[in-house]
Specification:
225 residues; 10 helices; two-stranded antiparallel ribbon; alpha+beta; single chain; globular; two-stranded antiparallel sheet
Length: 225
């Protein structure tokens, strides 16, 4: 059992102080899941090495600025780690966020016509190419191929006890939320429901099923913006 304190996991958290117990999920110690993660991440990093140069050139030509977008996220049991994506927005996107209306409900941010997204960025998002650098997070064990969406500090700071349950497994590149229409599910409580549903259904073969479904969605360019 792991004892979680909201006030001590995330520095500067604004939520009330509370504690609860987390029972380790069986996926955490699954050697087969870890084997799939290692093999899948190596394949993903190989693809990244092939497409890196053309993607980097396209990003710079379309919108001057860094190639990568770097952000702190929170994973298993609230542990922080750094993710990198190919930049899909203008370089000063964070400063402009207040000008964009949030079309989602709760602790997620979505806007279908976000003006900060570049032309190349829309293509990268629709094909999920922007997330290729996260295969490194999978390789080092911070993420998994399949899991929950890794939240930001702004989100975690407002979690209640139910929300924290979604961090009982490693965050993933794909998962229930992604294959069930990540652009159409715009209510955070629904996202939590899907994450908890994944935890109940989890099995190595279920991970493989979700990975296969993810490929169909990516090649069909469905549910991403």
């Amino acid at each position: 059992m792991y004892q979680i304190s909201c006030a001590t996991i995330v520095e500067g958290v604004t939520a009330d102080n509370w504690e609860f117990q987390l029972t380790p999920h069986p996926s955490i110690n699954s050697r087969l899941k870890r084997f799939l993660d290692i093999v899948g991440s190596l394949v993903g990093l190989l693809i990244l090495s092939i497409v890196f140069v053309p993607i980097a050139i396209a990003i710079i030509i379309d919108s001057p600025g860094p190639i990568f977008f770097t952000q702190e996220r929170y994973g298993l049991y609230g542990r922080s780690f750094c993710i990198r994506k190919f930049r899909s927005m203008v370089s000063d996107a964070e400063k402009l966020k207040s000008l964009v209306e949030n079309e989602a409900d709760g602790l997620i941010f979505k806007n279908k016509n976000d003006f900060r997204v570049t032309r190349v960025g829309r293509f990268l998002r629709s094909t999920s190419l922007d997330e290729l650098p996260q295969f490194w997070n999978v390789l080092v064990g911070e993420m998994s191929l399949v899991g929950t969406r890794p939240p930001t500090k702004d989100e975690v700071c407002h979690y209640n006890q139910r929300h924290w349950q979604r961090l009982n497994v490693k965050p993933g590149l794909t998962g229930e939320w992604q294959i069930n229409g990540r652009s159409y599910v715009k209510n955070f409580e629904q996202v939590v429901d899907l994450d908890l549903q994944y935890q109940k259904k989890w099995h190595p073969m279920y991970d493989l099923l979700l990975i296969v479904k993810t490929f169909f969605i990516i090649f069909g360019r469905v549910g991403a913006f």
